[in-house]
Amino acid sequence: DALRFSADSLLGLIDNILDLSKIEAGELTFENKIFNLQQLIQSLQRAFQFRLREKPISVVMDFDERIEFMLIGDPTRLNQILTNLMGNASKFTQRGTIGVRAKLLKDHPHSYDIQFSVHDTGIGIPKEKIDIIFENFKQADLATTRRFGGTGLGLTIVKEITEMQGGNIRVESEPDQGSTFIVEIPFQKSETKNRELPIDIHTENILSPEQLSKLSILVVEDNDMNQKLISKILNIWKCKFEIARNGLESLEKSKLIKYDIILMDIHMPEMDGVEATLQIRTDKTNLNVKTPIIALTAAALLEEKNRALEAGMDAFLTKPFSPKKLQQIIAEVLFEYKDKKSDQKLSKDNDTSEVSVDFSYLYEFSNGDKNFVIEMVNTFMRESPGQIKEMESALLKDDLETIRKNAHRLKPNYMMLGMSAQQEIALKLEKNIAQKTATKAEIETAINRLKRETQTAYQLLSNKIMEL
With b meaning 16 or more CB within 10 Å and e meaning fewer, what string describes 13-37? Predict the structure, then answer.
């Protein structure tokens, strides 16, 4: 227990510093997906009630019923904000109540403005100290730091993450009267309504014990302690697994057995994980040429992550990690891989992909602003011909990097306009060039398809704008 507490404390500090570094470098990313807000808050309540079971503290939740449960936004970042604030509330409260309220501020046609109030009956904050608590490494005073611990980074990160999502945060507090942190964030509405949802809907991809037990995993790891740690997790899950001590061993094993997942350490003797992944991905005779590969590393640097992903890895997990985090990453990769296989099969069976456009994303993003939608469409119609022409010219010069960069730029543009088939072509083109698995003929075919289908889309886009 003592070791786990120390490790969790250190990991929390490292996570905070990494988040702060990402924020300052402009590298922090946000998801935009459907999630169940009420379930997220209920899970938070249950988690803290269990955590505080030894304290005379009640954890309460209040949810405004005018809010539809299903929203579009980043549930991970919202959970990070609320968990941090609830963590502070529980730390500075010895008895009484802590809780979170979700209140509807404004109901727009395509979005909600929601206010989250995290309140407690704790020690409170003097008025003259309120302005400094959101600064890096600052707490209300040294006595607070000595008594309760902490780094003074949590509120800084909460403030930054909130404001990066178009929200704001403030605090109301009196010494010995408790505190209330008020966070206001906009969220897009989802077309999925509460009544259409099963009661036990999950906010994240998870795997059942039965699904876990059916997995076949190759663990590529040279460190003995890490091997034992991962083996313990996988034994609890009752899944089949093998261990390779370096990249060379992983290559040999990957040629003999088809695995569901490969967990690949990056830094190893003989051959590192990046080189091993490149060889697996470029050897079409390898049984695991398309198997999802998750990078494992203790060096959580952006350059390291980019290097792993460019080699063909599918996800990135920083050591040390919890069993829950490992399961989440595996589930996300497997669900994504399942979807990709389905998409690839459809694409193979129907090479003349249908061209369609859809402004739903742009409407959701802009709260129904027609002028914004028209501006985005006009920008696409102005810039995409030059990007495709640049790819055609680069192909004549065998300049694959220029083709890859333009495919990368076109990919999100297709997504915003609902051109999913073309988005998939651009995605595969970018990925196959990066992994060096595409022939010149395949690249030429992809560029020609993008040119032909994008030109078809221009007329569809023009007609759709005329209808606005």
Answer: eeebeebbebbeeeebeeeeeebbb
Q: Are 122 and 93 in contact (CB under 8 A)?
A: yes
pLDDT digits (tens, 9 = 90+) for 417-443: 888 888 888 888 888 888 888 888 889
Say which residue the tokens 């507090």 belong to.
173
3 state DSSP class of 129: helix
> What are the beta bridge partners of residue 217?
241, 261
Of 116, 107, 272, the C-alpha closest to 189 is 107
Q: Are strands 111-120 and 96-107 parallel, antiparallel or unpaired?
A: antiparallel
Determine if the pTM surpasses 0.85: no
Question: Closest Cα to residue 52, out of 145, 146, 4, 121?
Answer: 121
For residue 117, give the DSSP letter.
Answer: E
Specify whether the CB–CB gap between 193 and 182 falls below 8 A.
no
pLDDT at 316 exceeding the cut of 50? yes
Residues 6+ apart with CB under 8 A from 420: 356, 414
For 81, half-sphere exposure in the C-beta direction (CA atoms, 13 angstrom radius) is 28
Q: Is the peptide bond before 56 cis (omega within 30 degrees of 0)?
A: no
**C-alpha–C-alpha distance, residues 336 and 342, integer Å:** 10
The two three-digit tokens of residue 141, written as one number = 């005073």
Give CA–CA dist 286/252, Å, rounded: 10
d(CA 49, CA 329): 26
* DSSP E strands, 357-453: none
Distance CA 86, CA 429 (A): 45
Residue burial 240-265, b: 16+ Cβ < 10 Å; e: rest: ebebbbbbbbbbebbeeeebbbbbbb
Please say whether the beta carbons of 78 and 185 come within 8 A.
yes
User: Where does the pLDDT of residue 219 fall: very low under 50, low under 70, confident under 90, or very high at 90 and above?
Assistant: very high
Contact 296/316 with Cβ under 8 angstroms?
Answer: no
The first and second tokens of residue 387, run together, are: 């990007």
Q: What share of the chain is helix, strand, coil (3-state, %, to 5)?
A: 55, 15, 30
pLDDT confidence tier of residue 342, bands split at 50, 70 and 90? very low
Angle, alpha carbons 380-382-383 (nearest 5°): 70
CA 397/CA 462 separation, integer angstroms: 34
Strand partners, 173: 179
